[in-house]
Amino acid sequence: MDNPVMELLRPDRPAQCTWTANEGGSPHTKRTEVPSRRKTLPDILSAIGQTPMVRLNKIPKAHGIECEMYAKCEFFNPGGSVKDRIAHRMIQDAEEKGLLKPGFTIIEPTSGNTGIGLAMAAAVKGYKCIIVMPEKMSNEKVYVLRALGAEIVRTPTEAAWHSPEAHISVAQKLQRQIPNSIVLDQYTNSGNPLAHYDQTATEIWEQCDGKIDYVVLSAGTGGTVTGIGRKLKEMSANIKVIGVDPMGSILAQPPELNKGDVGFYEVEGIGYDFVPTVLDRDVVDVWMKSEDHESLNAARELIRKEGLLCGGSSGATLSSALKIAKDLPADKRVVVLLPDGIRNYMTKFVSDQWMEVRGFLPCEPLTEGNKHWWNTPVSSLSNLRKPVLPEGATCGETMDLFKTTSDRQLLITTDNKRVKGVVTSDALLSKLISGAVARTDRAEEAMLKQFSTVTASQTTLGRLSRILEKELYAVVIDSEDALVGIVDQSELFSFISKLDNVAQNGIICANL
Cα–Cα distances in Å, from 298 out to 82, 244, 267, 433, 475? Predict the structure, then answer.
């Protein structure tokens, strides 16, 4: 039986690595690969690595940059990301140490890409695989993982890393419950940075013939930064390592860089609320903070102008690299690592609508008929519903309340009228049927913590209509984040229908 007070194996415990630059004799195991690609391969794992180094042309020119800029395209790995490298390396090391044997189950907490790499390797080698990842991560990653045969466990995005419901804690709990299972633990596993120290960094050096002035790397677990940074600095002490960390994360140094009000960020796979063991922050010469708007538009620019089908974290890296490169002379070279590809984000930043809803792209009217109301503020909507659930209500009481009201969403608020979550009739019923909650549980156990919000004075009806094309409702708040009300598509259409010249403007409900 699982021990509920079992101590958490911290992913930020002090590193015990004794590596020192240029001291000679690595304390770690070493793996080298054949530098040239063979004509045929024994399996797909042999295709990991040797990703292309591609010159950026249009983007530097558009930004007035004189120096050379190159992109290391890690999305060419067979699983679609740089994480294929560490997944394969961690499995190889575990097999050689006798920690991973035939019939074992691999369990891993991950933002998705390491999970895909591990699931791909598990499929080839015949292991079972369980991936534990936060709900924030894209559905595309879920579909790929399931296609590879992995079992998926989702955890709350907002859970602190050390909380019992966080993906790290849940993975360790599963490992204690499942016989013959192992958590490879990318946050502490030396195979993570070593995969990049032995291979990725060497590839970058050889592809550039040693001519590298700056290398720009986004930080997640930190293995990429540590492995590449250490190896390249051994090759040349003049190389500057630039670390990229999103706003809302705490990896950057000095700590003052991490201050701010941002808690949630959309870019996936980088940044954490703890400092992983494998991250050597001191190998970074300069840390830079990235933010969603800039990052995701930069990723779209890489796709549109350079034809590089990359993911959002690639945009975070590029946007920081452009700031470094703008002041460099023509004889300097900047290398940017692009961690993953477009496949995982087709319904996210690749979608114009998704970008518009979040304010990352301007929201333009679809037709002439929409223009007369498109830029009207949401505050124009009057008498919005405020279906607030009584404090302390149980799931059973909430289900009974749904039977007596036309509201399909009930809000749970704090003492200062801020919305903590939304309980929907469908979601509550599903959780009751599945046994995820009982009628006697507090309704908060079944509430949705992520939902669309709009600010009454700042959001336009046009942007609200975009949200309601995909969402059943939106929560309206004021400038202090206090509840104003809730609105759905029918209420928005009813308001627009009262405006002048509706018939002549030809408003269509489906477009709202």
Answer: 19, 14, 12, 44, 29
